[in-house]
From TrEMBL:
Stated name of the protein: Ornithine cyclodeaminase
Pfam families recorded: OCD_Mu_crystall
InterPro entries: NAD(P)-bd_dom_sf, ODC_Mu_crystall, ODC_N
GO terms under cellular component: cytoplasm
């Protein structure tokens, strides 16, 4: 039996063919499966401390989709700008052998951003016109790109980074090439006046940082703003303050069980799993069809908190491998299992 290997370049070629709607529907099916108790297995991630990284291992299986294990390494230093090395191993359901090894560095950001876009579409009351993003890594690149593709109403985007460094400038250049009709601006976090102005006029705010303290105070955020918080994955990590979480009423999450032990912002205000609503209970596709009567407390802002679930990795990896097979992309290692 052969093994398919997909490099970062292979994955980029394949994902360039995906539409925003296609990715939203894919993530909607994942979240709906997770929240309705469909046939799946997704044990809690295993964390191992390395010399310069925290290695996360996430095995998962979705019925009729597949079984996969993703390994991602998160740098322990905030000065490490090399991104998050990640690989996904996709299994063959019949033989139990490894079917494909996929470079997942870009896929982690893509599937997370697709979930955020789905949440924005489901929770925001009107078409967004302005987007503010905190961070300058692959997550923010994917979040900005997918939001602009999904919502043509967005005409302005501000990206806030720790400093106006080359990483930010390169990101802005790339996004300007892809979206020439959108006004894109970069700010350093210490440009307090400009950052406050951007936040106060934002329709949507996306955060993807490793911060351990709030990036901005609640008072800067205007009513009816929607926030996607995807950076924190440990109790000590927070991107927004407690006041902002309280303003949101019922918090919508990817996994209530995971967020109850990993989402620092929610832990800080004492939220338990039963206090949260999983997005999979609200939608089964990107059109946001309600699944019955869901009791939610309304606030003056909406918040989607995502720590990531392994089922997302199974779904996106299987989708990529299927497209690779149809397009004859990738390197095949013959007789790998002989």
């Amino acid at each position: 039996m052969s093994l398919l290997v997909l490099s970062a370049q292979d994955v980029n070629t394949i994902t360039a063919t995906f539409s925003s709607a296609e990715l939203e529907d894919l993530m909607a099916s994942v979240f709906h499966c997770l929240s309705t108790g469909s046939d799946y297995a997704s044990p809690h991630r295993t964390t191992i401390a390395m010399s310069h990284h925290t290695a996360l291992s996430m095995p998962s299986r979705m019925k009729n989709v597949g079984t996969a294990i993703k390994v991602v390494s998160v740098p322990t230093s905030t000065d490490d700008n090399r991104g998050l090395p990640a690989s996904t191993v996709l299994m063959d359901e019949e033989t139990g052998c490894v079917k494909a090894i996929v470079n997942a560095s870009a896929l982690t950001a893509l599937r997370t951003a697709a979930g955020s876009v789905l949440a924005t579409r489901s929770l925001l009351s009107k078409p967004p016109t302005s987007l503010v993003a905190f961070g300058a890594g692959k997550q923010i690149e994917a979040h900005v790109d997918l939001h602009i593709r999904a919502f043509p109403s967005i005409k302005r985007c501000v990206i806030v980074n720790r400093s106006r460094n080359m990483r930010l400038e390169n990101l802005l250049s790339e996004l300007r090439r892809s979206h020439p009709l959108v006004a894109l601006e970069g700010l350093a976090a210490d440009d307090t006046t400009d950052v406050r102005n951007a936040v106060s006029h934002a329709s949507v705010i996306c955060t993807a940082t490793s911060s351990t303290r709030p990036l901005f105070p609640s008072e800067w955020v205007s009513p009816e703003t929607h926030l996607n918080l995807v950076g924190s994955f440990k109790p000590g990590m927070v991107e927004v303050d407690c006041d902002l979480i309280r303003r949101a009423g019922t918090i919508v999450v990817d996994s209530a069980e995971a967020c109850a032990v990993e989402a620092g912002e929610l832990i800080a205000v004492g939220l338990r799993a039963g206090d949260m609503i999983e997005i999979g209970r609200l939608v089964e596709d990107r059109q946001g069809r309600l699944q019955g009567e869901i009791q939610m407390t309304k606030g003056d802002v909406t918040v989607f908190k995502s720590v990531g679930v392994g089922l997302q990795d199974v779904a996106i990896a299987r989708h990529v491998v299927s497209k690779a097979e149809s397009l004859a992309i990738g390197t095949i290692v013959e007789n790998f299992h002989v």
